[in-house]
């Protein structure tokens, strides 16, 4: 492998490889500009038949123009592949090879010839997968190094040359370790073979990625969406894609990744926003939340919804003109029982009932010599007597009112939870002070999930083509069901780390979680190579693994970073000042800083920073060159990362949770947010696992 950085002034342009590559970059930028200008100049007025088509075309054109933006600090290409033979051609003696520049998006010249190939195209795959063992017909793989938007270095691997040793790429290492200011970056230039395999797995199957801190699982999930949108553009444009994250600050942190890859069409949401049928103003105690989040609640709700159906005991008389048609009670009962047995959605069955009754009337009409058609059947279905019977037998159900009644009425709950929930569990979920109405109720987020389940029992939830679920280990079984409803006809990418589960109902095993999601056949992949967190830091955090996730493989960090961990004990009254001093030290380095502390400690640290004159951000706010420090409550640290982390009082982080295991998991999350260095500051004793 040969690395080249240009330091001398450029001389003989044609002979200087770096000058040639810079020329190709300038020409590619000009070609992209021309592609954008062509799109902007398109006149669609003559090609559309009506205003609806015109609006659709105009929106598509706007999206196209947006996706052709040249982002100043985002290199157009980051690699080059020189094939020994033209891809797809017969590998004949003397056949000419071909070179391709690999980048974030496709760029072509005025003749339509490619100048940059999209990283997702099949021809780009060897950039990520080729090796000395399997060169994949590649003579040369070249990686480019950039400073700002300028091409400043390149590095070559001659994959088909047996005499050249295999080494780790310095440029790759630098790109992985580059300081982070602003939102999350894409990893398109640094995707590893095991990550690429997940990224390029097909749309049909669901994938679950178990990955420890710094293994790139979030980035892999987002790149998989970008890949699927490239490979199945039309289908996913119809069915839609969705990325689900744990909170808004996390979504804000990742929201730039897909646009940088040219994808603007992916919706983002939290589980709470997906199920927002009511305003959430209350919280549950852990025992109540555990029961409400249990999958058994689905059966309680199913019984409660179906309990609204009462079998008819009276015959039905339908008057049409001078004739009267009588349907006996036993026949009505058969119709209703048959619909119940089919176990279709409550609302769909309710819509079908008047038609079934009308059909029974039509059979009698035909028997008496009449020849009724579909219009007569529809008219009978709308008949007042039929409507009255349907309303009495199969009344409409309001999902929120149903859940309100279950949580307020002990008898109603007992009737439908019998044999499913114990008496103690029933008492845990009953409201101490029943709410009067849906509007006045102080709903919790677990209640909103129950309403979502009831809503789906009444009418089917719309399903998308692909859903990415990140930080999945924190979902309850009922939340998994809510997400699963949104991809019943599509596939899912589930991302998480069992060791980072910090809710009382945190996932114990992926098999169980995937079952609740309705994706029991998903393939579970484990990422164990860490690229972001230094080896010393991950080894220190991993001391907690035997207690928080026995049996889980420790992340093996590829990053050697001596001196990246410091643990400092201070006197009881010196904690705030010591944390501020550690932040001041860290701010002398390049990149972002996170001061992470137990939620209860945040006000004291905020005051200490303010009195030291240090400005800081809240999680999710974007770092700028002037303000690089974020004050992070431990409960919001998950999924975020900073170049340097100062961690305040580990024992307070543990004590802030309802039980020791959840506290240690929260601490594991906090310890693994650092990309370059971690300083642990404590006055109280450290948890015994770290001592």
Overall description:
The protein has 691 residues and is an alpha/beta fold. 40% of the residues lie in helices and 17% in strands. The chain has 28 helices and 22 strands. It has a 7-stranded mixed sheet, sandwiched between helices. It has a 6-stranded parallel sheet with strand order 10-9-13-14-8-15. A 5-stranded parallel sheet has the order 18-22-21-19-20. Helix 12 crosses helix 20 (445-458). The longest helix is centred in the first third of the chain and has 25 residues, at 17-41. Pfam families: UvrD_C_2 (PF13538). It comes from Streptomyces formicae. Keywords: ATP-binding, Helicase, Hydrolase, Nucleotide-binding.
């Amino acid at each position: 492998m040969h690395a080249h950085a240009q330091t001398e002034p450029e001389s003989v342009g044609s002979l200087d490889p770096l000058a040639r590559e810079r020329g190709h970059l300038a020409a590619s930028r000009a070609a992209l500009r021309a592609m954008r200008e062509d799109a902007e100049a398109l006149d669609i007025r003559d090609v559309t038949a009506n205003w609806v088509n015109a609006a659709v075309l105009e929106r598509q054109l706007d999206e196209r123009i947006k996706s052709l933006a040249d982002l100043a600090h985002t290199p157009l290409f980051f690699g080059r592949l020189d094939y020994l033979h033209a891809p797809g051609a017969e590998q004949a003696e003397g056949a000419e090879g071909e070179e391709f520049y690999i980048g974030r998006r496709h760029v072509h010249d005025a003749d339509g010839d490619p100048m940059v190939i999209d990283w997702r195209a099949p021809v780009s795959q060897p950039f990520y997968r080729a090796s000395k063992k399997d060169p994949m017909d590649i003579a040369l793989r070249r990686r480019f190094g950039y400073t700002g938007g300028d091409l400043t270095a390149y590095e070559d691997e001659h994959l088909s040359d047996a005499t050249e040793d295999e080494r780790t790429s310095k440029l790759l290492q630098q790109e992985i370790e580059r300081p982070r200011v602003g939102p999350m970056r894409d990893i398109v230039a640094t995707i590893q073979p095991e990550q690429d395999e997940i990224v390029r797995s097909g749309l049909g199957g669901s994938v679950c990625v178990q990955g420890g801190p710094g293994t790139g699982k979030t980035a892999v999930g987002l790149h998989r969406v970008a890949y699927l949108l490239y490979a199945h553009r039309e289908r996913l444009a119809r069915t839609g894609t969705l990325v689900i994250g744990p909170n808004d600050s996390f979504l804000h942190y990742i929201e730039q990744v897909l646009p940088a890859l040219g994808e603007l069409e992916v919706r983002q949401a939290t589980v709470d926003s997906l199920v927002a049928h009511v305003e959430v103003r209350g919280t549950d105690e852990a025992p109540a939340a555990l029961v409400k989040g249990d999958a058994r609640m689905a059966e309680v709700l199913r019984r409660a919804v179906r309990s609204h159906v009462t079998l008819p005991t009276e015959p039905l008389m339908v008057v049409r003109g001078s004739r009267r048609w009588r349907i006996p009670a036993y026949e009505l009962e058969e119709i209703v029982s048959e619909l119940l047995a089919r176990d279709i959605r409550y609302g769909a069955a309710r819509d079908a009932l008047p038609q079934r009754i009308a059909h029974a009337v039509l059979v009698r009409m035909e028997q008496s010599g009449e020849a009724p058609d579909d219009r007569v059947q529809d008219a009978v279905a709308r008949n007042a007597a039929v409507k009255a019977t349907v309303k009495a037998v199969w009344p409409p159900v309001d999902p929120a009112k149903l859940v309100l009644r279950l949580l307020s009425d002990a008898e109603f709950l007992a009737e439908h939870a019998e044999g499913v929930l114990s008496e103690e569990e029933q008492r845990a979920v009953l409201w101490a002070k029943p709410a009067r109405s849906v509007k006045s109720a102080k709903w919790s987020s677990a209640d909103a999930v129950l309403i979502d389940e009831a809503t789906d029992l009444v009418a089917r939830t719309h399903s998308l083509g692909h859903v990415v679920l990140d930080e999945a280990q924190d979902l309850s079984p009922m939340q998994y069901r809510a997400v699963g409803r949104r991809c019943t006809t599509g596939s899912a990418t589930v991302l998480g780390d069992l060791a980072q589960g910090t809710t009382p109902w945190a996932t114990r095993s992926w098999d169980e979680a995937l079952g609740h999601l309705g994706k029991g056949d998903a393939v579970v992949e484990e990422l164990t190579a860490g690229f972001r967190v230094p080896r010393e830091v991950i080894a220190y955090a991993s001391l907690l693994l035997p207690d928080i996730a026995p049996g889980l493989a420790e992340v093996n960090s590829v990053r050697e970073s001596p001196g990246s961990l410091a643990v400092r004990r201070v006197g009881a009254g010196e904690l705030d000042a010591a944390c501020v001093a550690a932040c001041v030290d860290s701010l002398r380095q390049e990149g972002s800083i996170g001061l992470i502390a137990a939620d209860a400690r945040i006000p004291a640290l905020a005051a200490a920073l303010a009195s030291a004159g240090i400005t800081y951000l809240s999680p999710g706010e974007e770092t700028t060159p002037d303000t690089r420090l974020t004050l992070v409550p431990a409960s919001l640290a998950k999924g975020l990362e900073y170049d340097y982390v100062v961690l305040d009082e580990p024992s307070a982080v543990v004590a802030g949770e309802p039980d020791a295991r959840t506290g240690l998991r929260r601490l594991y999350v906090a310890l693994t947010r650092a990309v370059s260095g971690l300083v642990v500051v404590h006055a109280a004793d450290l948890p015994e696992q770290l001592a």
